[in-house]
From TrEMBL:
HAMAP family for the chain: TsaD
Domain annotation Gcp-like: ranges: 30-315
Residues reported in the UniProt entry to bind Fe cation: 118, 122, 309
UniProt protein name: tRNA N6-adenosine threonylcarbamoyltransferase
Protein family membership: Belongs to the KAE1 / TsaD family.
EC top class, as a word: transferase
Cited function: Required for the formation of a threonylcarbamoyl group on adenosine at position 37 (t(6)A37) in tRNAs that read codons beginning with adenine. Is involved in the transfer of the threonylcarbamoyl moiety of threonylcarbamoyl-AMP (TC-AMP) to the N6 group of A37, together with TsaE and TsaB. TsaD likely plays a direct catalytic role in this reaction.
Assigned keywords, A-Z: Acyltransferase, Cytoplasm, Iron, Metal-binding, Transferase, tRNA processing
InterPro entries reported for this sequence: ATPase_NBD (IPR043129), Gcp-like_dom (IPR000905), KAE1/TsaD (IPR017861), TsaD (IPR022450)
Organism: Brevundimonas goettingensis
Residues in coiled coil: none
Amino acid sequence: GGDLVVLGLETSCDETAASVVRLTPGGTATVLSSVVHSQIDDHAAFGGVVPEIAARSHVEMIAGVSERAMAEAGLGYGELDGVAATAGPGLVGGVMVGLSFGKAAALARGLPFVGVNHLEGHAVSARLGAPVAYPFLLLLVSGGHCQLLEVRGIGDMSRLGTTIDDAAGEAFDKIAKAMGLGYPGGPALEKLAASGDGSRFDLPRALLGRKDCDFSFSGLKTAASRLAQACETDQDRADLADAVQSAIARQLAERSERAMKDYAEKHEHRLLVVAGGVAANKTVRSTLEAVAARQSFSFLAPPMAYCTDNAAMIALAGAERLQLGLTSDIDTAARPRWPL
Ligand code: KG4
Ligand code: ZN
């Protein structure tokens, strides 16, 4: 076949997003448009995402956001080759909004429909910035997930490790909240850390030296929250932010290094990819890049705009599935839980 042009829709958390992506038979992706409406202001007063408010906001925004993505791509719905929407995992009320809108758009134009796993979207997101050949080792770090995955292709991944308590983004968010920073906490904590020096704090190093590739952040969260109570000056808080950021980055790097050693025994092509909201963190990126170099792995992160939730990654995962003939039934259900 020729190029595939796919509309992607993302409504699984607190961003209403639509994007049009073109995929060539050789696997080169071009983002024709990517529109993200963030609901952060709607949820800020509650210190986190309120599912009912999120779902209602998606209903209000989805048609307009989708129209804008089509207009910016300079296309009509009839010129698409398919429609893809996140079918889970996530807040199910929101997932249903994008999923139903996507099915309706596909039905109205007689187009194939693809229900996409949000995690699969993150898994392919680095391909939006550069051509990336399969297989690769993936560290997926978002607000809800913290996993190491062997990615052999679309729909062909296996998990090497996961968190036994909080996700990395969740750790950033909870510690930031304990420090009195706004929601979402990750970006706020990174900003504060820039003027800090965390070397005087000795935070716990979880699971160090363990033979598996799992993560744990609850000990760090408890320790950091206790230290946050004792902070007196802005400098104290900046120093603690820096210590927390380094500790999270260090754990992600240590567990990834463990996984790289196993991965290298099975695969000749050594590439570590990081994806998800936490991949936007510069300290996380540089720490991972350093251990990857030590293990003779190349290292790749998506362009900043495609780390946090977006619809371009959903459009691309949809296009890759479409290329393989993997379409979904029109009665595909929204799934609050959906492991890869
Ligand atoms: O991938 P994402 O947008 O949504 C989920 O699928 O969960 O990830 C959101 C998470 C939040 O926990 C947020 O605090 C974190 O990613 N995050 C960051 C940064 N930007 C977003 N964490 C650390 N540093 C950042 N710059
Ligand atoms: Zn996400």
